[in-house]
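thought: user wants a sequence for this fold. calling inverse folding tool.
action: design(structure=
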């Protein structure tokens, strides 16, 4: 699983002209599921994200986690995080999991992420065309991959 994490002041997801969900200060997590991913990747990734000290304390140092600031979480499925761009100009998404498997793991990840931070993770709609609005804070943007823990 590959997660692109953005610290935000606010974010929302719109589907067919309707706002499906929105958050205030917290994390917007774009999640890509790969064919090799499984349920065992979820606790490691949600645990890592929930403990990241990327929020500022009173001294202005990034020393607080999403749990410390009681922030919101939004999880959006994004298969394009697994794009291969080595050859040509058209990205290949062959590493991305198929829709059934990806949907199952995405939903499970969102539930677990909410449990990790003590709230309900807001979501988009798997497979839908979505418009994401956000105000990035910092900006602070990180990539974490359960298959490449050195990232």
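)
observation: tool returned 151 residues.
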């Amino acid at each position: 699983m590959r997660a692109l994490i953005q610290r935000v002041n606010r974010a929302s997801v719109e589907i067919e002209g309707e706002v499906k969900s929105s958050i205030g200060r917290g994390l917007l997590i774009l999640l890509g599921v790969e064919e090799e991913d499984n349920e065992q990747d979820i606790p490691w990734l949600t645990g890592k994200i929930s403990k990241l000290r990327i929020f500022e304390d009173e001294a202005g140092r990034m020393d607080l986690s999403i749990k410390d600031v009681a922030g919101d979480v939004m999880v959006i499925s994004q298969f394009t995080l697994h794009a291969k761009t080595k050859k040509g100009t058209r990205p290949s998404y062959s590493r991305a999991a198929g829709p059934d498997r990806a949907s199952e793991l995405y939903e499970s990840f969102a539930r677990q992420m909410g449990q990790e931070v003590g709230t309900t993770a807001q979501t988009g709609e798997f497979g839908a065309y979505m418009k994401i609005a956000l105000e990035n804070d910092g900006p602070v943007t990180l990539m974490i991959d359960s298959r490449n823990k050195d990232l």
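thought: summarizing for user.
answer: Here is the designed sequence. The chain has one domain: 2-144.
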